[in-house]
DNA sequence: GTGTTGACCCCAA
DNA sequence: TTTGGGGCCAACA
């Protein structure tokens, strides 16, 4: 059993399911996959997800406060915010506005 | 093989 | 309100 690779795939699949104009959190994804407590792994997985062939919208994943913690890992520091605003999400000072409303909970929606 | 780091989260003071 | 400490586990040096 190769659970590590499987976990990454599950993360990618779940993130792909996030609707346009919505965002989710690392913790929610981790918990949804039964890895509650290991939220860092989701972030680590995202770092490896920069590959365009994976087609993973990592910009829709933020930390629990709605802060764009991963923006510095993009090619440009503003790319993540640009992508979010293009989808109708307001981002001010790396902070998602109306985060509670924009939040997409996989545990509830699925 | 060991030690440190990190796109995180939770709780206490 | 802001800080600090613990936990979690893969990736990296």
Q: Output the radius of gyration.
A: 13 Å
**Widest sheet: strand order?**
1-2
Largest sheet: 2 strands, parallel
Q: Structural class of the secondary structure composition?
A: mainly alpha
CATH superfamily: Winged helix-like DNA-binding domain superfamily/Winged helix DNA-binding domain
The CATH topology is given as Arc Repressor Mutant, subunit A
Mean pLDDT: 93
| Overall 3D form | globular
The amount of helix comes to 40-55%
H/I helix tally: 6
- Distance between the terminal alpha carbons, to the nearest Å? 26 Å
Number of domain modules: 1
Number of strands: 4
What would your notes on this structure say?
This protein is mainly alpha-helical and 110 residues long. It has a single domain, classed as Arc Repressor Mutant, subunit A (Orthogonal Bundle), CATH 1.10.10.10. The protein has helices spanning 3-16, 26-32, 39-48, 79-86, 99-102, 106-109; strands at residues 24-25, 61-62, 91-92, 95-96. A hairpin with a 2-residue loop joins strand 3 (91-92) and strand 4 (95-96). The longest helix has 14 residues, at 3-16. The protein is globular. The protein binds a DNA duplex (13 and 13 nucleotides) through residues 4, 7, 25-27, 30, 35-48, 58, 61-64, 68-73, 80.
